[in-house]
Automatic annotation (TrEMBL):
Signal peptide as annotated in the record: 1-17
Family annotation (InterPro entries): Ester_Hydrolysis_Enzymes, GxDLY, SGNH_hydro, SGNH_hydro_sf
Record keywords, A-Z: Signal
Protein name (database record): Hydrolase
Domain SGNH hydrolase-type esterase residue range list: 181-357
Domain SGNH hydrolase-type esterase N-terminal residues, every copy: 27-169
Source organism, top-level taxon: Bacteria
Gene Ontology MF term list: hydrolase activity, acting on ester bonds
Gene3D superfamilies according to UniProt: Galactose-binding domain-like, SGNH hydrolase
Species of provenance: Niastella yeongjuensis
Length: 364
């Protein structure tokens, strides 16, 4: 009888301790929109899309759809929570043969430590459009600054960040990303992030962490064809440097027709802002498919002619980066002969960064 009473008391104490522990470690959620958003060109009607619907009305239909995806947008915040969770809603489930689910629809968390951004963990994607995932746990309780990248090839309608009930979460007192300095990158699927393993491995995100500048990802998969509505939009986006990595998508004939008026207009509207022109990456499958190889060669020849024409006309603040300097020559930088692996993104970031630094240093 005495044993039964003691057993009941012990069980009750264990239940009470578990409830107290759960209470101390229970999660509260905050709307990510109340924290610090970076990687956005301008304010938009839907907070996690890249271009406002009204500003996109004259753009090609494909660009309008891709502009609703959240590539390059990130949340900066500080917290002393020992764990971080996230709840996010996707507009649709996505399947892409050349990308991981966690890259196209998941989240990617970094922490600023010892003067640099360090990878922490990812918000994994489960089946369905409503996501609720633990990202990291068992951290110490010091205040740390975090950056949470949003999906590369999907949208987000809602995002909440979860922390311990007893912890705090705020906008950073001293953001490690200087939003007063901006690099705007316009380009193809490579810019948008295909085929990074996770959102933070897209090369605009790498440039952001390396420079400490706000980098705006205006990559539109298969649809960066230098139409004039895009030039007009870019000219209204505040920038310290424009990077035009848009040669993979248009045909050689489209480049010959469109690139000069596109870049000329952008320069005339923003004459003091440097423009970095990037050739298309070499297509690895172009070594075997002669038609692909010839097209890439003609694309780069066409944009080179535009660059030389602009230089002859005395256009200042334009810089040029050749294809052979972008992803190496060991044929290990792509996933499918076209889109980049994390290795490829690291190499293209390595190649573009010195040109951006030079352009900013010589900015007139």
């Amino acid at each position: 009888m005495k044993y039964s009473v003691v057993k009941i008391i012990c069980c009750s104490l264990l239940v009470l301790a578990a409830r107290l522990s759960y209470s101390q470690d229970s999660i509260k959620y905050v709307d990510a929109a109340t924290l610090m958003l970076i990687g956005k060109a301008k304010i938009t009607d839907s907070i996690y899309q890249r271009i406002d619907s009204m500003e996109a009305k004259d753009m090609p239909q494909a660009v309008k759809g891709l502009a609703k995806q959240s590539a390059g947008i990130a949340i900066l915040f500080e917290t002393n929570s020992r764990s971080i969770r996230a709840k996010w809603s996707l507009p649709k489930e996505v399947y892409l043969h050349n990308m991981t689910p966690d890259a196209h629809s998941g989240l990617d968390l970094y922490c600023y430590k010892a003067g640099k951004w360090q990878f922490v963990s990812i918000g994994r994607v489960a089946p369905g459009i409503s996501q609720n995932q633990l990202i990291v746990q068992n951290m110490d309780n010091t205040v740390k600054q975090f950056m949470l990248y949003l999906p590369l090839y999907n949208g987000i309608s809602q995002l909440q960040i979860g922390i311990q009930n007893t912890a705090t979460i705020n906008k950073p007192a001293q953001p490690a990303i200087n939003i007063a300095k901006r690099i705007v990158v316009y380009g193809s699927s490579v810019v948008q992030g295909a085929s990074a393993s996770r959102a933070g491995m897209a090369y605009p995100a790498m440039l952001q962490r390396r420079t400490g500048y706000d980098v705006i990802n205006l990559g539109f998969s298969g649809s960066a064809k230098m139409e004039m509505p895009l030039a007009k939009y870019l000219a209204t986006v505040p920038a310290d440097c424009y990077v035009l990595d848009c040669i993979p998508n248009p045909s050689p004939e489209e480049i010959s027709e469109r690139s000069y008026p596109f870049i000329k207009y952008l320069h005339e509207q923003q004459p003091a802002i440097p423009i970095v022109m990037v050739e298309t990456i070499f297509r690895q499958n172009g070594l075997w498919d002669q038609q692909v190889g010839n097209t890439v060669k003609r694309q780069n020849e066409a944009i080179r002619k535009t660059y030389e024409r602009l230089r002859k006309e005395g256009v200042k603040n334009i810089y040029y980066l050749e294809s052979d300097k972008l992803i190496g020559d060991d044929h290990e930088a792509t996933i499918d002969g076209i889109h980049l692996t994390d290795l490829g993104f690291t190499r293209i970031a390595d190649a573009i960064l010195p040109v951006i630094k030079k352009a900013l240093a010589e900015k007139k």
